[in-house]
Amino acid sequence: xxxxxxxxxxxxxxxxxxxxxxxxxxxxxxxxxxxxxxxxxxxxxxxxxxxxxxxxxxxxxxxxxxxxxxxxxxxxxx
Length: 78
Description:
Layout (H helix, E strand, L loop, with lengths): L3 H11 L3 H14 L5 H18 L2 H18 L4
């Protein structure tokens, strides 16, 4: 399933528009069903990477930990 906000976030992230990518990723998280752990985990990972690169390590760590916890629930540890 492709989430529109996530796709736009990917495009922004690849063009180094990381703050814009973060906005798209946060929007994608808002529309995803809470039980969609796989999509949420992937988006949280990308969001964490964006925060890390723009210099917000505290938020990055939280996003990456949330992502890891969801991947762990799925038995898929990246």
